[in-house]
Write a structure and sequence with these properties.
Strand content: 15-25%
Structural class: alpha/beta
Shape: elongated
């Protein structure tokens, strides 16, 4: 506490305080020593004077007592009155009786007080002094020459005068101390001012320097130390001025460079913006040129699906559509790569079936798998709901990318897709998709190059297998946008397993899964040397209630059939792989001769008739490779008599384009410069029941609407002579056509295209290639508006 207070004092105050402490530390001991010395000397003098008086009376008193002259004792005692310091005196007999006294009255009054001192005198062996309170007693025994006790002498001296002298001495000493302290404080004050003034002047100079003042006057110093300090401040000020000048020069240079760099940056930004706009225009043109013929492909496939097809024809049409959609997704991803990297890609939340997505991927990859002779299959967790909410296109894109890579780098062995349910919460599920292969594998040192855009394991990979190295990077971004992650485990020469996780929401409107009760407790015999097919059967059949007995080796299969016959064990169905069936088929026929047991083949064939001829069978069912849950389920139901035996051979027309009763009175104008795209769109609209006309550009469209009162216009945006934007603006200039619905048909897929269409006056937007369901939904959306306009 004391040190903290001292630290707050100024130098001047500290100098005064320390000077005062020094004076006090010297003067107080001197004063106290002087007082004690004077006091001791005064008492010693009083004692010597008392002893002198006592010695002076000693001999005469002995002589008188020896002669027994008692009356003369009083005379000697009274002679002591001349000494003003003597308060009382007495001569006592050996037995303590008073023989003579100076003040009898005082003696009687103060006898109790004097008695202790008398006793000390009477107990002494010689003349002595006793110091009391403000008094001094001298006395002792009076003895003859023969050492005979004759009596006692008692003399009492007052010390008041001695004490008065001591007090006066103390007062003088204290007065001297006070005067010395005052003089010391005055001198300390003068001295502190003498030293603090140059310090305050230097502080003022330092404040001027810190405030940036350039005119600083240094006061003349009379002390060497302060002169040295002043000189140091001058040097510091000179260095500061030099530093400031260099800093100002550097600031000017830096400011000049910043302006130059800013100008260069602005020019670079303008160049980049121009390049970006050029890239956007280029990508828009590429998108238009690719999407326009794709519109004819997708539309034609939709129209073809509305006709009666057999199973194989239907499958080919599905492959066309799925392949076109996959190509379209790839185009979209390339066009939107910058949007993916900036994290602005939108993820849909629509009803979807994970099993259907995996089956679509297998359909697309089927011919490449068969061409390489690989084992291929998809194992889906049976507990996974059939309908969830998510983005099916993005999921298909990732899964297709991983499967394509697996096929590309696998020359023999297998490729297996596995979909697992990792975590289930109240409103969402966490799924893991993995694609494992027995391909060439990847060295651990090369794994860090994966999932980077335009990067592959090494340059030879691109030369041998092709590819841009973009797919895995896009897959990683898409997985992360769906809340998941991607990864890979690989060993060179053994194979790889690429995986990704996603979070998908539960669909509250998901219909309950219905499994036919006819499958419950059915014993299914399965012989197949393909381990993935066997894993597929063991995964799904128990979930349906079946009891599968899967066998991979020929001798075990024959033994199981013979044992079943001997024990009269009944199999409800026998499933054989066509590739391995010849060796066990005689035993199978022998078993089925006694027991009516249907035979189902896993085959590359799409129709069962060739198999019936090949194996000389009257009846059989087929499951096309690769196995899919839907076809296995229906094949079992057909084999067990739940469905018609030939219900899988012919497929009824798909209900993508259902004619509408409200469409027959609605006139639609399709404006498109591409004849194929225009004709496909017209045909789809006619299938829906609309009255449709076509125009090749904006000029023809304006002429057509002046002749026919159209109820809706499908307007392409990029056309020669007059594009869709300008045509729409001219149509809106006519007040009568102000509310005519105009739907944009564009092959552009760049961000902002929809906004541009709406800004031009169009009501809605359809991106090419146009899908039949999307077109039907758009027409249905505007039917009430069209009907309202007709009633006006």
């Amino acid at each position: 506490m004391m040190f903290s207070i001292l630290s707050t004092l100024s130098i001047r105050d500290k100098l005064i305080l320390y000077s005062s402490l020094i004076i006090l530390s010297v003067a107080i001991p001197v004063t106290l020593g002087s007082y004690l010395n004077d006091r001791e000397e005064s008492l010693n003098n009083s004692q010597r004077e008392a002893m002198r008086v006592g010695q002076m009376l000693y001999s005469p008193l002995i002589q008188l007592l020896s002669q027994n002259k008692i009356s003369e004792l009083s005379q000697d005692i009274n002679n002591l009155r001349v000494n003003a310091d003597i308060q009382d005196a007495m001569i006592l007999s050996p037995d303590g009786k008073i023989l003579a006294e100076l003040n009898p009255v005082n003696s009687k009054m103060n006898l109790p007080y004097f008695l202790p001192y008398m006793q000390q005198i009477m107990q002494s062996n010689a003349m002595t002094t006793v110091l009391g309170n403000r008094m001094l007693v001298v006395g002792g025994p009076l003895k003859s020459h023969e050492d005979v006790l004759l009596g006692f002498l008692y003399i009492q001296f007052s010390l008041d005068k001695a004490h008065e002298r001591i007090r006066m001495t103390l007062f003088i000493n204290l007065l001297t101390l006070g005067l010395s302290l005052m003089l010391g404080l005055i001198l300390a004050r003068v001295l502190s001012n003498h030293f603090s003034k140059p310090i305050m002047e230097l502080i003022h100079v330092a404040n001027n320097i810190s405030s940036g003042s350039k005119e600083v006057v240094f006061p003349k110093q009379s002390y060497k130390e302060f002169s040295v300090l002043s000189q140091a401040l001058k040097i510091m000020l000179r260095n500061l001025h030099q530093t400031q000048e260099r800093l100002e020069e550097a600031t000017v240079i830096l400011d000049k460079k910043v302006k130059e760099r800013t100008k260069e940056l602005e020019e670079a930004i303008h160049v980049a913006e121009d390049a970006n706009q050029s890239k956007s225009r280029f990508l828009a043109n590429v998108s238009h040129e690719i999407r326009t013929p794709m519109n004819g492909m997708v539309g034609t496939a939709s129209l073809l699906k509305n006709t009666t097809l057999d199973k194989e024809q239907r499958k080919y049409v599905d492959i066309i559509q799925l392949s076109a959609e996959s190509l379209l997704n790839l185009i979209n991803e390339i066009l939107d790569l910058s949007k993916i990297e900036s994290g602005k890609l939108d993820i849909e939340q629509i009803p979807m079936d994970v099993r259907q997505i995996s089956q679509e991927v297998m359909d697309i990859m089927e011919y490449r798998i068969k061409e390489k002779g690989l084992s291929f299959g998809c194992i889906v967790d049976p507990q996974l709901p059939h309908q969830l909410l998510g983005d099916p296109s993005r999921l298909r894109q990732i899964l297709l990318n991983l499967t394509t890579n697996a096929i590309k780098f696998t020359h023999k062995g297998h490729i297996k897709i596995v979909i697992k349910l990792l975590e289930e919460k109240a409103q969402r599920l966490k799924l893991k998709f993995s694609v494992a292969d027995s391909g060439i594998g990847i060295p651990p040192s090369k794994l860090d190059k994966l999932f980077k855009a335009f990067s592959q394991v090494d340059a030879s990979t691109t030369r041998q297998y092709g590819g841009t190295g973009l797919g895995l990077a896009i897959s990683k971004k898409l997985s992360e946008l769906m809340g998941g992650e991607v990864g890979v485990e690989s060993e060179a020469g053994v194979g790889s397993e690429f995986w990704f996780t996603v979070f998908l929401a539960k669909d509250p409107q998901s219909p309950p899964e219905v499994i036919s009760p006819i499958l419950k407790d059915k014993n299914i015999f399965i012989y197949d040397e393909d381990i993935i097919n066997l894993e597929f059967m063991n995964n799904i059949l128990p979930f349906w209630g079946c009891k599968p007995q899967t066998i991979r080796k020929e001798e075990l299969a024959l033994g199981a059939l013979i044992q079943a016959q001997e024990k009269h064990f009944t199999f409800d169905a026998i499933i054989l792989n066509e590739l391995h069936a010849a060796a066990v088929l005689p035993e199978v026929k022998n078993y089925c001769r006694d027991i009516a047991c249907p035979i189902i083949f896993i085959s590359n064939e799409q129709n069962r008739e060739p198999l019936k001829t090949k194996f000389e069978l009257t009846q059989c069912q087929i499951m096309s490779f690769p196995l899919k849950e839907t076809q296995v389920y229906h094949a079992l139901l057909r084999a067990l008599g739940e469905e018609l035996a030939d219900s899988g051979d012919v497929i009824t027309p798909t209900q993508e384009l259902i004619p509408s009763k409200e469409a027959k009175d609605i006139k639609v104008l399709v404006v498109d410069d591409n004849v194929i795209s225009q004709q496909v769109t017209i045909k789809m609209l006619e299938t829906l029941g609309y009255q449709v006309h076509g125009a090749n550009n904006g000029i023809e469209a304006l002429e057509a609407i002046n002749v026919i009162a159209f109820d809706l216009i499908l307007m392409d945006c990029q056309m020669p002579e007059m594009d869709g934007y300008e045509a729409t603006k001219k149509i809106r200039e006519n007040p009568i056509k102000k509310h005519l619905p105009i739907i944009a048909l564009t092959a552009n897929a760049m961000k902002g295209d929809k906004d541009a269409c709406l800004a031009a006056g169009m009501n809605d937007y359809l991106s090419k290639p146009i899908k039949a369901p999307s077109l039907a939904a758009m027409m249905k959306k505007y039917t009430p508006t069209i009907q309202a306009n007709k009633n006006v």
